[in-house]
Write a structure and sequence with these properties.
Helix content: 10-25%
Low-confidence stretches: none
Largest sheet: 7 strands, mixed, barrel
CATH architecture: Beta Barrel
CATH class: Mainly Beta
Number of strands: 11
Strand content: 25-35%
Number of domains: 1
Distance between the termini: 17 Å
Length: 165
């Protein structure tokens, strides 16, 4: 069974970075107080929250990008879960909530503040084509819808419940 925990919960007034909060009230449209700079591309029920693994952030930091939890615009930074195993349709219990992964995040130009080439570092043609063997698979994170609202916070367990599709 895949499991790990929440390292950080983050929100912003729109854009990157997002700042850490002690806990988040996760509802159908995301975490209360979180806003989107470009709502025509981000947010909504199918992209209520963005999850990124802290291990992916560490890989990118090793490549020279000045990152930290929340920097990439994620709402939930995970620890201890292999992102290579993340798939659309998976349902995860996160604290009191349940989320369903809907789609990979396609990195936008907002990430350029962290250095040239970061989009290529997290997303390649293999990822675009759905090839889970890419070393960049899910490095940019996964969007998720909210199946069951609830309170989430750092240290909360995350566990895979099932694969819906």
């Amino acid at each position: 069974m895949l499991s790990g925990s929440v390292l950080q919960v983050s929100i912003s007034r729109g854009g990157v970075p997002k700042r850490a909060i002690p806990e988040g009230d996760l509802g159908p449209l995301g975490i209360a107080g979180d806003e989107h700079a470009y709502p025509e591309f981000h947010g909504g029920p199918k992209q209520a929250v963005l999850l990124i693994s802290s291990e992916a952030i560490a890989e990118l930091t090793a490549l020279g990008y000045p990152l930290y939890p929340g920097a990439l615009g994620e709402n939930i930074t995970t620890v201890g879960i292999d992102r290579a195993e993340w798939r659309s349709g998976q349902r995860w219990r996160v604290g009191q909530a349940i989320v369903e992964f809907t789609r990979l995040r396609i990195p936008c130009d907002q990430l350029s503040v962290y250095g040239p080439g970061i989009q290529r570092a997290v997303y390649d043609a293999q990822v675009r084509d759905g090839d889970t063997s890419s070393p960049r698979w899910a490095m940019g994170g996964f969007y998720a819808s909210v199946v069951q609202p609830g309170i989430i916070g750092p240290g909360d367990p995350i566990s895979l419940l099932d694969q819906m599709v």
